[in-house]
Here is the input.
Amino acid sequence: MFSGWLKRYMPRGLFNRALLILVIPILLIQAVVTVIFIQRHFAGVTRQMTHAIGLEIRYAIATAEAAPSREEALRRVQALGVPLGLTLELQPGQGIVPEARTGFFDVSGRAVVATLREILARPMQLDLVTDSKLAQVRVPTRQGVLAVAIPRRRVAASNPHLLLVWMLATSGILTGIAVLFLRNQVTPIRKLAQAAEEFGKGRTVRFRPRGAEEVRRAGAAFLAMRARIERQIEQRTRMLTGVSHDLRTPLTRMKLALAMAEPTPEMAEISRDVREMEGMLEAFLDFARGEGTEESEETDIGELVNRIVADAARSGQEVTLDYDPGPAGELRVMLRPLAVRRALQNLIDNAVKFAGTVRLTVRARPGHVEFRVEDDGPGIPADRREEVMRPFVRLDEARNQDVSAGVGLGLAIALDTARSHGGDLRLGESETMGGLRAELRIPR
Ligand SMILES: Nc1ncnc2c1ncn2[C@@H]1O[C@H](COP(=O)(O)OP(=O)(O)O)[C@@H](O)[C@H]1O
Ligand SMILES: [Mg+2]
Here is the structure.
């Protein structure tokens, strides 16, 4: 329960969390110190100061009561007031109403009252409210009521708020410094996360490990991993290209030989096989070329899809385009335009091949762009949709005996392109058209 609560109310970012971890103890310490200091120290000091004043008042009382007459008492008491720095007065009468008036928030005032009561040990009237700068005490003596006005700062330690101001100011400065240092610690982690995210989308950004030892290690590990993956992709591409290239020459020789040979049915069959192999190699090379060299660039999606549809129209393919760039009116995404074009071209080729009507729908979704190719053909059964995306898988060999049918690389290439951009390719059934729905997603 507590951890759930913590999760809900803790800030999400590392920076804010670290700041909280740092600032909460500071505030707590301050609160505790403030309370204890004011309660203990200030009350203690106040008691000591009041104690001293109390003794002086006792002395004044003794002086007054030792005098033989009221006039003499008045004279002596007034004479005593000068060296003590107190205003002492002897008022006629005996009666006072014993009471103590203190302000509600006056913590030290309460200590003053308690201490004076203890020291004087007789009924007294104490007023701390009428004049906030004075503590006014009235005590009955045998020679009349002794009225003492004591400057407040002589009985209570003053200015506790100055301490508070100091504490708040220093903790403010400390927090400010902490913020600066923390930011420097968090930035390298943020940069690492960014580089990893970008790499997931198939983009290599400049990144240098920085910051604390652990963060630097994670950064270095990421760089090593990235280099290894890049090396592997490069190696795969180079192998594909190499093999395809090397096979071209013997194929060309075979084609020449076939052209020279007598045209028998067997020869026609071999010639078809050769053409099929050639198609395979072209597809390979086509794929490998883009993969190896193309860099991501910011691409206007509208321009890209319009071009694809126009190209399709030129080669006699009828494709309806439904493009909605969203509220911005324009959709620009970092991607490898040639690769994405080839992937979409493959999907459209398939749709055209198996169906009559083809529609390309492009939408800006949160986090990604969605390219949807739908047709009204036979579609692909749900249990075979995973399978057809593997290289060289074709469904129903009888369905496409024709050599131009392709070699089973179209969907594999489209999937590869999507994945290398950090996106995905999903096959399904078109709700509106009944045929295949191929959904290519590229993060933006
Ligand atoms: N739009 C579609 N409608 C029906 N079947 C399809 C469609 N697209 C692809 N397929 C099936 O998926 C298989 C693999 O497609 P693909 O990878 O493009 O290879 P190819 O086009 O070279 O045969 C095709 O052979 C076909 O059987
Ligand atoms: Mg195809």
About this structure: The first strand starts at residue 87 and ends at 91. The radius of gyration is 46 Å. The CA atoms of residues 100 and 113 lie 7 Å apart.
